[in-house]
Amino acid sequence: MAQVRKYLVAGGTFSVAMAIGFVMQNGDALASRMVAEDETGIQPLAEPVVASAEAEATDVPYMPEPSFSAALSVPDAFQPADPPTEPVRLAAVELDAPVTDAMPQGTDVEMSCAADMSATAGPAATVMLELSAPCAIDAVGTLHHQGMIVSVLTDSQGKATVMVPALAQEAVFIADMPGGFGAAAIVSVPDFAQYDRAVLQWQGDTGLGIHALEFGAGYQEDGHVWAASARSIDAAQAGTGGFLMRMGDVPIEGAMIAEVYTYPSGISQRDGTVELSVEAEVQSANCGRAIAAQSIQIIPGAESQALDLTMTMPDCDAIGEFLVLKNMLRSLTLASR
User: Fold this and answer.
1) pTM score, two decimals?
2) What are the domain boundaries of the chain?
3) Please, which residues bridge with residue 188 across strands?
4) Buried-exposed string 95-119: b where 16+ CB fall within 10 A, e elsewhere
5) What parts of the sequence cross the membrane (predicted)?
6) Which residues, 6 or more positions from 255, have their beta carbon under 8 angstroms from its beta carbon?
7) Residue 107 belongs to what H/E stretch?
8) Which residues pair with 118 in a beta bridge?
9) What are the helix (H) ranges across the chain?
10) Contacts from 185-191 at CB under 8 Å and sequence distance 24+?
11) Domain 113-188, what architecture?
């Protein structure tokens, strides 16, 4: 297999949110530099591919401000006629007319279209959501949970079943469906404190993904957990390793997608470090374009942290290469239990 070139990125525009949704703090802009990684270590590139911190202002089309005239003229044909001189007679209205079966029953329609969602706690602090939206058939909506937003697609009966890693012990989920229909569910997750979680979310085709290197593992080895080697929940339940789940990857343009890496820190059978990073593959769909993402890290007993990223991908002559974003997630230091 041909060697894949990876670049360590210390660039981009970051902003940090401590205790998600409450305190916002702007992070310092990191130095715009990139170095290549090979077997001998990290060496500077002669001509580094620079990840621009933000899209250039010229990327936004200029829209001239429209000009308006204060004077408004109305053609003679549309001038109002003189008011009538004779009194206007109103038709009598029977206020107590009986309601007939032919009249639409709006309340019945609303009741038949009402969405419903249930939440059941599952293994490894996951939650099984069952959504029913009878008037949102084969429709795309969004699921919201603790700042994480993912797309959801209903079937021909307006139903969808989604497994979601819980990001809070008292987990609240909200479904927002087309047509103004929505539903909410809450469930207590008893084993929530046993698991560390790292979330990465984005919209559309960005080439992004979480990579976890567990206990000194190298790329493509058994301890390398990522989308192509996500591992099952069984390893987490046994306390021997983490697993990855991807949600929202529905076949529409601009889908809201999230990856969640979970490690069983409270029942770990191993000690050491799990190195976490975000990687972005340069693809034809994202090369030379600005992309955006957000990471959320949940460590029970510690303050949650969210980090926003905006950056410009390298030009299309770098297709097939990867950018490694080390600053998006904190690595985990674990002790066996």
Assistant:
1) 0.72
2) 6-48+195-334, 113-188
3) 170
4) eeeeeeeeeeeeeeeeeebebebeb
5) 7-24
6) 140, 151, 203, 204, 248, 249
7) helix 106-113
8) 130
9) 106-113, 233-238
10) 185/117, 185/118, 185/119, 185/129, 186/119, 187/119, 187/120, 187/121, 187/127, 188/121, 189/121, 189/125, 189/127, 190/121, 191/124, 191/125, 191/266
11) Sandwich (2.60)
Structure tokens at 198: 């790292």
Specify the pLDDT at position 63: 31
What residues of the chain score a pLDDT lower than 50? 1-2, 11, 14-81, 83-85, 87-106
Q: What is the per-residue pLDDT for 6?
A: 65
Which element (helix H / strand E) includes 111? helix 106-113
Q: Determine the pLDDT at residue 302.
A: 82
Cβ atoms within 10 Å, residue 164:
22
Report the distance separating Cα 63 and Cα 73, nearest Å. 27
pLDDT tens across 204-241, in order?
A: 999 999 999 999 999 999 999 999 999 999 999 999 99
The answer to whether the beta carbons of residues 129 and 185 sit under 8 Å apart is yes
Tokens of 288: 């030379």
- Which pairing describes strands 41-44 and 116-121: parallel, antiparallel, or unpaired? unpaired
Helix (H, G, I), strand (E, B) or coil at 145: strand
Tell me the one-letter amino acid at 265. S
What is the spatial distance between Cα 251 and Cα 49, in angstroms, rounded to a whole number? Answer: 31
Rounded Cα gap, residues 245 and 195, in angstroms: 14
Percentage helix, strand, coil for the chain under 3-state DSSP, each rounded to 5: 10, 40, 50
Distance CA 243, CA 263 (A): 7
Bridge partners (DSSP) listed for residue 278: 210, 325
Please name the residue that has the structure tokens 């959501």.
129
Give, in order, the Cα–Cα distances in Å from 248 to each of 23, 89, 116, 254, 266: 27, 61, 19, 10, 28
Amino acid at 235: A
Residue 5: how many CA atoms within 13 Å on its side-chain side?
14
* Count of positions (residues) in the chain: 337
State the residue for tokens 């069984």.
234
pLDDT of res. 334: 87
Q: Are strands 196-203 and 290-298 parallel, antiparallel or unpaired?
A: antiparallel
